[in-house]
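Bit of a strange request maybe. I'm writing a small parser for structure token strings and I need a real example to test against, not something I typed by hand. Could someone generate the tokens for this chain?
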Amino acid sequence: MQDVLVDEDGNYMKDAGPGLKGLDVQGLGGGAVRLLLEDDILDTHKVVHSYPYDWRTKEPVIICASKQWFMNLDSIKPLASVSSAS
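Reply from user aminoacidic:
Good idea to test on real output. This should exercise your parser:
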């Protein structure tokens, strides 16, 4: 299984689950996920909340967790400030 289950267009990818591939996470995908989980859901009710929107496209922003890595560059910072014109 891959780490990211939503593509750059906001659609579920094939590893997200049966019947989810290509569905918009903020559209039909939400209902499809609910159907997949319906046997485990005890109660449902609507919650109205705001989504962040991109100021340029006016499209909703989907926040996805992803694996990341970071590198400590302190040991090579002195090398970056050495002038090659010496």
